[in-house]
TrEMBL record, chain A:
Gene this chain is encoded by: atpE
CDD domains xref list: ATP-synt_Fo_c_ATPH
Spans through the membrane: 53-77
Pfam families (alphabetical): ATP-synt_C
InterPro entries found in the cross-reference section: ATP_synth_csu_bac/chlpt (IPR005953), ATP_synth_F0_csu (IPR000454), ATP_synth_F0_csu_DDCD_BS (IPR020537), ATP_synth_F0_csu_sf (IPR038662), ATPase_proteolipid_c-like_dom (IPR002379), F/V-ATP_Csub_sf (IPR035921)
Organism this protein belongs to: Shackletoniella antarctica
Subcellular location, principal: membrane
Cellular compartments per GO CC: plasma membrane-derived thylakoid membrane; proton-transporting ATP synthase complex; proton-transporting two-sector ATPase complex, proton-transporting domain
Protein's UniProt keywords contain Zinc: no
Domain V-ATPase proteolipid subunit C-like: 11-74
PROSITE patterns per the UniProt record, alphabetical: ATPASE_C
Keywords: ATP synthesis, CF(0), Hydrogen ion transport, Ion transport, Lipid-binding, Membrane, Thylakoid, Transmembrane, Transmembrane helix, Transport
UniProt xrefs under PANTHER family: ATP SYNTHASE LIPID-BINDING PROTEIN, MITOCHONDRIAL, ATPASE PROTEIN 9
The name this protein goes by in its record: ATP synthase subunit c
From TrEMBL, chain C:
Coiled-coil ranges from the UniProt annotation: 66-144
GO molecular function annotation: proton-transporting ATP synthase activity, rotational mechanism; proton-transporting ATPase activity, rotational mechanism
CDD domains: ATP-synt_Fo_b (cd06503)
Family per similarity comment: Belongs to the ATPase B chain family.
SUPFAM superfamilies for this protein: F1F0 ATP synthase subunit B, membrane domain
Residues passing through the membrane, by range: 31-48
Name by which UniProt lists this protein: ATP synthase subunit b'
Cellular component annotations (GO), alphabetically ordered: endomembrane system; plasma membrane-derived thylakoid membrane; proton-transporting ATP synthase complex
Function statement: Component of the F(0) channel, it forms part of the peripheral stalk, linking F(1) to F(0). The b'-subunit is a diverged and duplicated form of b found in plants and photosynthetic bacteria. F(1)F(0) ATP synthase produces ATP from ADP in the presence of a proton or sodium gradient. F-type ATPases consist of two structural domains, F(1) containing the extramembraneous catalytic core and F(0) containing the membrane proton channel, linked together by a central stalk and a peripheral stalk. During catalysis, ATP synthesis in the catalytic domain of F(1) is coupled via a rotary mechanism of the central stalk subunits to proton translocation.
Membrane topology value: Single-pass membrane protein
Main location: membrane
InterPro entries per record: ATP_synth_b (IPR034679), ATP_synth_B-like_membr_sf (IPR028987), ATP_synth_b/b'su_bac/chlpt (IPR002146), ATP_synthase_B_chain (IPR050059)
SUBUNIT field: F-type ATPases have 2 components, F(1) - the catalytic core - and F(0) - the membrane proton channel. F(1) has five subunits: alpha(3), beta(3), gamma(1), delta(1), epsilon(1). F(0) has four main subunits: a(1), b(1), b'(1) and c(10-14). The alpha and beta chains form an alternating ring which encloses part of the gamma chain. F(1) is attached to F(0) by a central stalk formed by the gamma and epsilon chains, while a peripheral stalk is formed by the delta, b and b' chains.
Length: 81, 245, 163
């Protein structure tokens, strides 16, 4: 593997995961905060809120995972190697 | 291969496969081995649970009835009371297969078994499996739409306006793509994180991450089944369904 | 750590050499799909159908039992109500009977008392009459004796004077 391509791939992989985690991080924080607020207002709806929260958290998590997949491709299945 | 080392358990392998040649076809052997185990376990448990069916359930039958009610609830919530029954087997098998696969990858110490090449892991760890499941889901919702609404199914592509036609067509491609990559990425990431941690600190430290991995795996199975059911429900009902990335 | 990085590099290189990799699509995909469909069919026959049937049957059993129980409860309540009505009726009757009996008893007692009083009155009157009569008789005899005695006294006094 060309050393420049290798270095660029590693940096790109790190950036991919790092940047991909910013948005979902903010989104998950928002969602969790709103869920806590919802539970505080209506404690009897806790079960429903928790289920929905987990599901939506997983959807946001998936966005980071896309970035992770890209970085995994760069690391382990680099098309430019 | 080159790791003759005390930490054989911690070998990190990505993108290696145990190749089988069947006819002119190349297969990933490790995926089939583990998937057969998963399928065998599912069939065995269902057989044991339904062998002696009682009106008042106990033990395994009780547990499997709980699982069935859980699956029915998923299908009912997404597809609707009227139409969900024929889709219970599909959605349920998606859930069970993915769930048991994910957990088998996390709970069974596959790495103790050495293969000539590649390593045993959850079947959902392989992109072929997840893409297969996602494509089946696509086929399922196309079938659901056609069988329910005939050619009128295509009307949904120009709703609400014909301008959205490209986006609506694109959606049919992004749906399986996101489904398969979500599952594949989550499971692979989980196993990689555990593997990297085991590589650094072999004892105890990876345990919380493994527990988190179990949780994520279960949620991913639930999400895959829920989304598949939601797509099917959307195709049956027409527009107005929920949209998920 | 260096070992780790080196390892990653080696694995990746290996994967590329073998023509494998992370996104290695081959006949695994369709075979997995077929396998999955077969699993769905098998589980449908082995798991969803029998257990679903049991669940539905149990639901039917429970709801029919519930309807049955509700019917029986309604019937029991009706019977209880009827019994209560009858009980109240009987109680009322019993009360009237008691009241009648009390009234009658009072009447009889009053009659008896009146008769006894009357009898006592007549007896007393009779006794009084007898007493009066005896008193009269006694008075009569007493007067006769007084007359006799006064005659004797007079004779004696007159005789002594005469002598």
């Amino acid at each position: 593997m060309d050393p420049i391509v290798a270095a660029a791939s590693v940096i790109a992989a790190a950036l991919a995961v790092g940047l991909a985690s910013i948005g979902p991080g903010i989104g998950q924080g928002n969602a969790a905060g709103q869920a806590v607020e919802g539970i505080a207002r209506q404690p009897e709806a806790e079960g429903k809120i928790r289920g929905t929260l987990l599901l939506s958290l997983a959807f946001m998590e998936a966005l980071t995972i896309y970035g992770l997949v890209v970085s995994l491709v760069l690391l382990f299945a680099n098309p430019f190697a | 291969m080159l790791m003759i080392h005390p930490l054989v358990l911690a070998k990190l392998e990505v993108g290696e496969h145990l190749y089988w040649q069947v006819g002119g076809l190349k297969l990933h052997g490790q995926v089939f081995l583990t998937s057969w185990l998963v399928i065998g376990a599912l069939l065995l448990v269902s057989f044991l649970a339904t062998r002696n069916i009682q009106r008042v359930p106990s033990g395994l039958q009780n547990f499997m009835e709980y699982a069935l009610e859980f699956i029915r609830d998923i299908a009912k919530n997404q597809i609707g009371e009227k139409e969900y029954r024929p889709w219970v087997p599909f959605v349920g098998t998606l859930f069970l297969f993915i769930f048991v696969s994910n957990w088998s990858g996390a709970l069974i110490p596959w790495k103790l078994i050495h293969l000539p090449s590649g390593e045993l892991a959850a079947p959902t760890n392989d992109i072929n499996t997840t893409v297969a499941l996602a494509l089946l889901t696509s086929l399922a919702y196309f079938y659901a739409g056609f069988s329910k609404r005939g050619l009128g199914y295509f009307a949904k592509y120009i709703e609400p306006t014909p301008i959205l036609l490209p986006i609506n067509i694109l959606e049919d491609f992004t749906k399986p793509l996101s489904l398969s990559f979500r599952l594949f990425g989550n499971i692979l990431a989980d196993e990689l994180v555990v593997a990297v941690l085991v590589l650094l600190v072999p004892l105890f430290v990876p345990l919380p991450v493994m527990v988190l991995g179990l949780f994520t795996s279960a949620i991913q199975a639930l999400i895959f089944a829920t989304l598949a059911a939601a797509y099917i429900g959307e195709a049956i009902e027409g527009h107005g369904g929920e949209e998920h990335g | 750590m260096t070992n780790f990085v080196w390892l990653l590099a080696v694995e990746a290189a290996d994967a590329v050499e073998e023509g494998g990799g992370l996104f290695d699509f081959d006949a695994t995909l369709p075979l997995m799909a077929v396998q999955f469909v077969l699993l769905a069919v098998a589980l449908n026959a082995l798991f969803y159908k029998p257990l679903g049937k049991v669940l539905d049957e149990r639901d039917g059993y429970i709801s029919s039992n519930r309807v049955d129980a509700a019917e029986r409860l309604a019937k029991a309540e009706k019977i209880a109500k009827q019994y209560q009505q009858e009980l109240a009726e009987t109680r009322r009757q019993a009360q009237t009977v008691i009241a009648e009996a009390q009234e009658e008893a009072q009447k009889i007692a009053a009659q008896t008392v009146a008769a006894a009083q009357q009898e006592a009155q007549t007896q007393r009157e009779q006794v009084q009459r007898e007493l009066d009569e005896q008193k009269n008789q006694a008075m009569v005899t007493l007067e006769q004796q007084v007359d006799g005695l006064s005659q004797q006294i007079l004779d004696k006094l007159l005789g002594a004077l005469a002598v």
